């Protein structure tokens, strides 16, 4: 079986969650209730995140991009990890509930086009609004926004060995479908409590080591 890798962005490739950082900095206090409702699963991810962004004026675009560029730190080893997957011939897809306008500036020079799946933010009305080009397929009714399980069904073949790399509850549906999970933070706790096959990581050097070890054992 050949490996295929699905990797989250916020809190996984970057050290922190960019949507949370943006809201803390720019949104009026109402955003916190929306965030709590999403985390308690009272509202779907897509409606919660959509409403959060609708609290922000489109005029803020340049300022928000500048803020994310300064604030977001890529986790150590990520560039080497991307290079490693290219050389090993392992397809790598970024699957993110984040938005194109803050992901593209951080990843465009590193990853080939067509390998990043995320949501699109638009700034042509008074308030920011979100478009969801990778919404749930007919097998998912979570209203994920960017539906990671749907993308996995779309991109992986029957004899692919699926790795999921992530950090949070928003990766859990994908993790349940994975053959092996590489996890940190809340997703790591979830993998332990649900008994999913996994290893923990902090940097992408760890991720590379895990892949090397596993793939050498298999071959
Ligand atoms: Mg995340
Ligand atoms: Zn879904």
Task: Describe this protein with a few key phrases.
binds zinc ion, 17% strand, 2-hydroxy-3-keto-5-methylthiopentenyl-1-phosphate phosphatase, seven-stranded mixed β-sheet, 10 helices, 219 residues, 7 strands
Protein described:
This protein has 10 helices and 7 strands. The chain has helices at residues 18-26, 31-39, 45-53, 61-71, 78-88, 100-107, 148-155, 172-177, 185-194, 204-218; strands at 2-7, 92-99, 116-122, 129-131, 160-166, 180-183, 198-200. Strands 4-3-2-1-5-6-7 form a 7-stranded mixed beta sheet, with helices on both faces. Strand 5, helix 8 (172-177) and strand 6 (180-183) form a beta-alpha-beta unit. Magnesium ion binds next to loops.
Q: What's the topology here?
A:
Blueprint: E1 2-7, H1 18-26, H2 31-39, H3 45-53, H4 61-71, H5 78-88, E2 92-99, H6 100-107, E3 116-122, E4 129-131, H7 148-155, E5 160-166, H8 172-177, E6 180-183, H9 185-194, E7 198-200, H10 204-218
Parallel strand pairs: 1-2, 1-5, 2-3, 5-6, 6-7
Antiparallel strand pairs: 3-4
This protein binds magnesium ion and zinc ion.
Magnesium ion (MG) binds at residues 8, 10-12, 166-168, 170.
